Amino acid sequence: MGCNFSSQGKLQVPEIRASRSITPASQKSDDNSYSHIRLLLLGSAESGKTTVLEQVRLLYKQHFKESEYFHRRAFIYHNIFKCIKALCRAMKISDIEFSDPINAGRAQSIIADEENHYGLFSKEMAEKIKAIWNDKSMQKLYALRSQFNLNDSASYFLNNLDKINTVEYKPSDRDLIMAYVPTCGVQNVVFTANNQSFQLFDIGGQKIDRRKWATQYEGIDAIFFCLAISEYDQVMSEDMVSNRLDDALGLLQKISEEPMFATTPIYLFLNEVDVFCEKLDVIPLSKYKPDFKGGDQDDAIDFMENLAVTALGKRDKSLYRIYRCIAIDTQMMAELLSTVFKDIMKRKR
Ligand SMILES: Nc1nc2c(ncn2[C@@H]2O[C@H](COP(=O)(O)OP(=O)(O)OP(=O)(O)O)[C@@H](O)[C@H]2O)c(=O)[nH]1
Ligand SMILES: [Mg+2]
């Protein structure tokens, strides 16, 4: 897998603060905001936007508040329950049978459970989840996970259930990166890289949140667009019909053609390369994109990059850069972000 960024070493970051805001970038008046370089994260739901923002926070030593750990922790329980439920549902409609027949009953009770589960699991519930997850057949099903929508972090959290399901559990940095907490509204982070302050805005990518996007367009210096290339076979949870990749490419095209961004550079992150590469063997790309005539992983990534270039349309080549990445990989993101921040600063000079 070729990742298109160079090793530039880590950035020096003296001080970083975060705030949540719904104020457009153009109207920020606090902290001498007009000296910030303003960046806007865009992309469809679950494409990795918040993961990028959280990597920035971790890499630039911006500590999370206790209330944020508390908030993320609640979502981690929720993520675990959603994952096990998705697996139980997938098992039910598959040809695979639980190795231990008792687990079929347990799975049925998970499917029927309508609670949202944002808190610690009871001992019985934790045992039930573990028994289902550790069933030999469940592991067979998990190997076929590309065939159904499952959060990419399912195995990470399910394997760590004992550690997580304790009163004293506090998410680690890795847990924060692996969790999926859908973004509602807008959040932003202010940080310094190479003696230049940046403000990075992150906005929800679900269809309902996209209506608010345009309120953030003014005063933006560069766009970070996340495109999860692994989604080529998936449908959107919003309507269960539209293909996620086509929707994301449509969004990219819309952003590329947005008159307010006519001269704004777009940094396109072809994300989830890890999931994409795992998936290719199970679900042929050509089944969803008949124009792909086969080849190895690099050929498949090149094909996806060409789709992105097509979506970027007539935009001048100097106005976009494309990077292949795995947003959960902190080291990879450190190098990539360092390269990108330097490039943005060069353009501003
Ligand atoms: N394996 C893998 N998982 C990823 C990658 N990037 C993000 N994820 C996971 O995908 C999930 C969704 O990521 P987010 O960054 O929260 O998605 P988002 O774009 O902010 O989504 P919205 O807020 O709903 O618009 C999280 O569980 C991440 O840990 C990646 O490159 N590889
Ligand atoms: Mg988000």
Keywords:
349 residues, alpha/beta, Rossmann fold, GI Alpha 1, domain 2-like, 2 domains, seven-stranded mixed β-sheet, 14 helices, binds guanosine-5'-triphosphate, binds magnesium ion
Topology:
Layout: E1 17-20, E2 37-42, H1 49-59, H2 66-93, H3 101-112, H4 123-134, H5 136-143, H6 154-159, H7 161-164, H8 173-178, E3 186-193, E4 196-203, H9 207-210, E5 222-228, H10 244-257, E6 266-271, H11 273-280, H12 285-288, H13 297-312, E7 320-324, H14 330-348
Parallel strand pairs: 2-4, 2-5, 5-6, 6-7
Antiparallel strand pairs: 1-3, 3-4
Helix pairs in contact: 1-14, 2-3, 3-4, 10-13
Bound molecules: guanosine-5'-triphosphate (GTP) and magnesium ion.
What does this structure look like?
The chain has helices at residues 49-59, 66-93, 101-112, 123-134, 136-143, 154-159, 161-164, 173-178, 207-210, 244-257, 273-280, 285-288, 297-312, 330-348; strands at residues 17-20, 37-42, 186-193, 196-203, 222-228, 266-271, 320-324. The chain has 349 residues and is an alpha/beta fold. The protein has two domains: 14-45 and 183-348, Rossmann fold, CATH 3.40.50.300; 68-176, GI Alpha 1, domain 2-like. Helix 1 (49-59) packs across helix 14 and helix 3 crosses helix 4 (123-134). Residues 1-24 and 26-33 have low confidence and may be disordered. The chain binds guanosine-5'-triphosphate (GTP) and magnesium ion. Residues 49-50, 183, 202, 204 line the site of magnesium ion.
